[in-house]
């Protein structure tokens, strides 16, 4: 159940974050990658929220995701726009492998924080490094720590395309300040004519990173020219109150 993104979870994600919905990241990375001459990889491509607009903009981008349900939404979005569905595949952070190297790897909107084990996270950074061409760039978004410290307990709702009601209730199970992780129960429910017709429970686990901690992990992996930026303003150091930290680093030539 942990970070699985099953049927209802993927449905809600697609309702809440449809293809093209930007949090500032799509415009930011289009600008940062405007001079990118090679291919780009997006791990954890999800429903294609970020991937599809980048592909439409002419970028040579590929992606993978561990959730078949999420990939289904991404493939449909590509098919509806006559885009190449073959650019996406099933894969995980820990096991993905390509027979080519990329000019850039982009992990937007905090997806890297789904990796909660430090040793695994460092191994994934090494896998990213190995899949970058010399001079290639790694770009990762991290959520600021403030977003992890609330108590949860929210109830959110969406109306489906058929007019049914989808609800999501979150409940914080634990916060480990030593391991820098949170675990939340996410209860998804589908209601039709006031009757509950389907439900799904998922464990949602995340890890937060300190800015310097993450920079040190990148340098330990072999990356250079590490730059952390706050709220999609390149070169402006993250400050108290910023919501997103974008970290960019380069594999040496």
Automatic annotation (TrEMBL):
GO biological process: methylation
Keywords: Methyltransferase, Transferase
Keyword Repeat: no
Signal peptide, first to last residue: none
Domain of life the protein comes from: Bacteria
A GO molecular function held by the record: methyltransferase activity
Domain spans labelled Methyltransferase: 40-136
Protein name, UniProt field: SAM-dependent methyltransferase
Native species: Aminobacter aminovorans (Chelatobacter heintzii)
């Amino acid at each position: 159940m942990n970070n699985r993104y099953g049927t209802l979870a993927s449905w809600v994600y697609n309702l809440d974050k449809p293809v093209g919905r930007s949090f500032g990241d799509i415009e930011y990375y289009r600008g940062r990658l405007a001079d990118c001459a090679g291919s780009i990889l997006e791990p954890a491509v999800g429903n294609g929220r970020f991937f599809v607009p980048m592909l439409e903009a002419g970028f040579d981008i590929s992606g993978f995701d561990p959730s078949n349900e999420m990939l289904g939404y991404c493939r449909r979005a590509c098919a509806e726009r006559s885009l190449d569905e073959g650019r996406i595949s099933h894969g995980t952070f820990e096991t993905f492998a390509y027979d080519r190297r990329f000019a850039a790897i982009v992990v937007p909107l905090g997806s890297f924080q789904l990796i909660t084990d430090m040793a695994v996270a460092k191994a994934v950074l090494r896998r990213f490094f190995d899949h970058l061409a010399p001079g290639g760039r790694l770009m990762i978004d991290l959520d600021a720590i403030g977003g992890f410290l609330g108590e949860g307990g929210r109830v959110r709702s969406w109306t489906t395309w058929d007019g049914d009601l989808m609800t999501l209730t979150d409940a914080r199970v634990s916060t480990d300040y030593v391991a820098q992780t949170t675990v939340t129960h996410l209860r998804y429910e589908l209601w039709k004519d006031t009757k509950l017709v389907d439900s799904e429970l998922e464990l949602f686990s995340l890890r937060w990173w300190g800015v310097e901690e993450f920079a040190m992990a990148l340098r330990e992996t072999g990356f250079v020219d590490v730059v952390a930026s706050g709220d999609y303003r390149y070169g402006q150091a993250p400050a108290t109150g910023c919501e997103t930290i974008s970290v960019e680093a380069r594999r040496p030539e």
